[in-house]
Amino acid sequence: MIAPAPSDTLMEDIVGLCKRRGFIFQSSEIYGGYNGFYDYGPLGVELRNNIKQAWWRDFVQCRDDIEGLDSTIIMHPKIWKASGHVDGFSDPMVDCKESKLRYRADQLFFAPVSVNGETIGYVSVVECIDQQEVAEKAAAEMKRKMAKQGELDTIELKEYTEAKPEQYELIPSPATGKPGSLTEPREFKLMFETKVGPLADDAATAYLRPETAQGIFANYKNIVDTGRVKIPFGIAQIGKAFRNEITPRNFIFRSREFEQMEIEYFISPSADWKTLHREWIDTCTDWLVSIGLPREGISEDIHPEDKLAFYSQATTDLMFQFPHGEQELWGVACRSDYDLKQHQEHSGKSMTIFDETVKEKYVPHVIEPSLGVDRTLLAVLSAAYTEDEVPNDKGKVEKRILLKFSPKIAPVKAAIFPLLKNKPELVEVAKRLHKKLQRRWNVFYDASGAIGRRYRRQDEIGTPFGITIDFDTIEKDGTVTLRDRDTCEQRRVTEDELIKFLEEQIDG
Ligand code: ATP
Fold first, then answer.
1. Is 486 exposed, middle or buried (0-12, 13-18, 19+ CB in 10 A)?
2. 213 and 227 in contact (C-beta within 8 Å)?
3. Which helix (H) or strand (E) segment is 332 a member of?
4. Segment 91-104 mean pLDDT
5. pLDDT computed for residue 174 by the predictor
6. Confidence of residue 292 (pLDDT cuts 50, 70, 90)
7. CA–CA separation, 261 vs 267, rounded Å?
8. For residue 37, which of 174, 185, 192 has the smallest C-alpha distance?
9. C-beta atoms surrounding 156 within 10 Å
10. Taking Cα atoms as reference points, which of 430, 409, 476 lies closest to residue 50?
């Protein structure tokens, strides 16, 4: 479940770079920050928009079988009753009565410590990349303190949700290291509540959506009735979702306000859903690779049948090797006709569709690929973050930090530099080229500092191409120097060649 991260400090390095260069800030920082909420700065918002645009183009605009939607965040509360969220959307929570800290019970692990078969106590650990090692160290320390002779038995960590009631009193709190202060797990509702309208009574209670999917189901009839779709077809939506996560952590991986890109793909109840599910898993994997994630960093977690919700036929999560371990990035679930049937029952409106090919009316089944924008952004940042060594202007080898973003999603596509800022003829050509490219792409003009330093500043924010206007440009043949971020290789190209190259790399 938890695999070693590529680097112990990668997450810290990414968080530091994101703040330093204006990708991501802690929300409400001037008031000490607000746990579980993040703001996206100038570069972050570009990166985020590029990811969303790539997804929308590839899954909505380039496909004839998927339509787009943008539904509201607050919807009729009956939607959440019908979907099961009001009664069942919760996580198991455990409190430490002494430290007042709260844990998600499925992220808290414990194990009995035994020496030659005799249990001498318990250890506990909060889910982390080296949890086994942490637990083993704590067990060895317990044995040493109790001066027990003999061999420590293997430490087998289990989720706190699996603890027996008689064990609650014996398991130490990770906060205090002492047993006796952890409560039994209880369900904590994850939906944020709000009130709609002038009367703040119970009838006014509404929810901030915890997923975009239900907005799709609630509009399914509208889209079918508009008459453009035939089975199989999908409805796609990108939008904010909110979950009052018990322990938001790992930067933007798990936050309380985030964004999702979801598709509900409606299929015939008699379709070969297993094959279609496989096709969706492959399509989703290929898309992640197309925006620059390494294929070898992506794996599949097939949910065991006994852990599936009763209505679910199958779920496979695409996992990514994040800095804090291998974790879910994209869930691809076969949800049968559960959601539409629930809405049919609760709303009293028919959710059937007439299938022209078989001349039959039915409630379709659905395959749901559900991806988080913020998690994708973190995955992209983790895959792109690189440190290497390159020679500086004087030929001395220096450490450099670079983000190897794919040109498709890089926040800045190219930077335009006049070689010297005090030569008006260079500046004029550079500014004219900047204006020209700016009409099509997000490009950046930078005239200040040594050229090597200017390159380095762009490398650090992942700008794939540097374009330098030098004396050859104005005195000889009009060519410019095109520098590649990753290899630092430079070559001369004409303006036409430059534009063709950028088109291929960015839009191709
Ligand atoms: P997890 O098990 O990590 O809590 P989940 O299985 O509850 O995730 P889903 O309900 O399947 O997640 O949501 C679909 C996608 O939305 C996830 O794969 C993830 O990319 C994203 N997502 C879910 N919760 C969060 C969150 N709190 N912060 C950021 N992204 C999230």
1. exposed
2. no
3. strand 325-336
4. 95
5. 94
6. very high
7. 20
8. 192
9. 11
10. 409
The predicted-structure confidence for 227-284, as pLDDT tens digits, reads as follows 779 999 999 999 999 999 999 999 999 999 999 999 999 999 999 999 999 999 999 9
Which helix (H) or strand (E) segment holds residue 43: the answer is helix 42-56
Q: Which atom of ligand 1 is nearest to the CA of 333?
A: 11
CA distance 470 to 472: 6
pLDDT band per the 50, 70, 90 thresholds, residue 3: very low
Torsion angle in degrees (nearest 10) through CA of 57, 60, 65, 68: -160
Mutational pocket test of ligand 1: of 104, 288, 370, the residue with most ligand atoms within 8 Å of the beta carbon: 370
Task: Tell which atom from ligand 1 comes closest to the C-alpha of 260.
Answer: 16
Q: Which of 333, 341, 344 lies closest to 367 in space, CA to CA?
A: 333
- Using CB atoms within 10 Å of the CB of residue 420, give its burial: 0 to 12 exposed, 13 to 18 middle, 19+ buried: middle
Q: Which contiguous run of DSSP H or E holds residue 189?
A: strand 186-189
DSSP code string of 352-414: -EEETTTTEEEPPEEEEEEEEHHHHHHHHHHHHEEEEEEE-TTS-EEEEEEE---TTT-SS-E
The answer to whether the CB of 372 is under 6 A from ligand 1 is: yes
Inter-residue contact 255 to 36 (CB < 8 Å) = yes
Q: Is the bond preceding residue 407 a cis peptide, omega within 30 degrees?
A: no
Q: How far is the CA of 172 from the centre of ligand 1 (A)?
A: 29
What is the structure's pLDDT at 203? 84
Query: Is the shortest distance between the CB of 328 and ligand 1 below 6 Å?
Result: yes
User: Tokens in use for 378?
Assistant: 């973190």
Contacts 24+ apart (CB under 8 A), 80-88: 80/191, 80/207, 80/214, 81/346, 82/342, 82/343, 82/345, 82/346, 82/347, 83/214, 83/217, 83/339, 83/342, 83/343, 84/342, 85/191, 85/207, 85/210, 85/214, 86/191, 86/207
Model-level pTM?
Answer: 0.93
Amino acid at 429: V
373 lines ligand 1 (CB under 6 A): no
List pLDDT tens digits, range 151-210: 999 999 999 999 999 999 999 999 999 999 999 999 999 999 999 999 888 889 999 999
Burial profile 253-290: b = 16 or more Cβ within 10 angstroms, e = fewer:
bbbbbbbbbbbbbbbbeeeebeebbeebbeebbebbee
Q: Ligand 1: which of 107, 260, 312, 374 to mutate, judged by most atoms within 8 Å of the beta carbon?
A: 260
SS3 200: coil
Sign for the CA dihedral angle at 230, 233, 238, 239 comes to positive
